[in-house]
């Protein structure tokens, strides 16, 4: 899919999943993805897509709904359900990509910082070795002059 996924790339796989669910080859349909919270935090999540989880809202359970649906409710629900699953899968893919890019960014920042500190340490070791070499050379010159 690359770094720029499109919904059209997901329609085929979603269609296969929904067909397997409709035919009874799948009892439940889940999506496993990383929920992107911020650059430093991504949380692995498992969400049930089908069958739709029951609502916990008591007000909705006890309210009487009197709506007339056109076209018929089955066709409407089939279309809405397909769009819902497509959007949830797309969101999972996009959040996974965002999480991956954030993890890469954090890893590269850490590598850059570690490289900088390594350069400082090596520069210090080099300067100490150079200073020791100069001191030894001066000592040899002074010793040679004293011997003459």
From TrEMBL:
Subunit structure, as described in the record: F-type ATPases have 2 components, CF(1) - the catalytic core - and CF(0) - the membrane proton channel. CF(1) has five subunits: alpha(3), beta(3), gamma(1), delta(1), epsilon(1). CF(0) has three main subunits: a, b and c.
Lineage: superkingdom: Bacteria
Keyword match Zinc: no
Name by which UniProt lists this protein: Membrane-bound ATP synthase F1 sector gamma-subunit
Keyword vocabulary terms for this entry: ATP synthesis, Cell membrane, CF(1), Hydrogen ion transport, Ion transport, Membrane, Transport
Similarity comment text for this entry: Belongs to the ATPase gamma chain family.
GO cellular component, as recorded: proton-transporting ATP synthase complex
Lineage of the species this protein comes from: Bacteria, Pseudomonadati, Pseudomonadota, Gammaproteobacteria, Enterobacterales
Function according to Swiss-Prot or TrEMBL: Produces ATP from ADP in the presence of a proton gradient across the membrane. The gamma chain is believed to be important in regulating ATPase activity and the flow of protons through the CF(0) complex.
Record localization: Membrane
């Amino acid at each position: 899919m690359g770094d720029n996924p499109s919904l059209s790339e997901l329609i085929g796989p979603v269609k296969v999943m929904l067909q397997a669910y409709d035919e009874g080859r799948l009892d439940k349909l889940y999506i496993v993805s990383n929920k992107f919270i911020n650059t430093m935090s991504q949380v692995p999540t498992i969400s049930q897509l089908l069958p739709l989880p029951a609502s916990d809202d008591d007000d909705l359970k006890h309210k009487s709904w009197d709506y007339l649906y056109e076209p018929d409710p089955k066709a409407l629900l089939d279309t809405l359900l397909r769009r819902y699953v497509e959007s949830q899968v797309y969101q999972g893919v996009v959040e996974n990509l965002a999480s991956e890019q954030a993890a890469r960014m954090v890893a590269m920042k850490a590598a850059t910082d570690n490289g900088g500190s390594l350069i400082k340490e090596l520069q210090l070791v080099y300067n100490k070795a150079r200073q020791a070499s100069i001191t030894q050379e001066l000592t040899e010159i002074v010793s040679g002059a004293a011997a003459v």
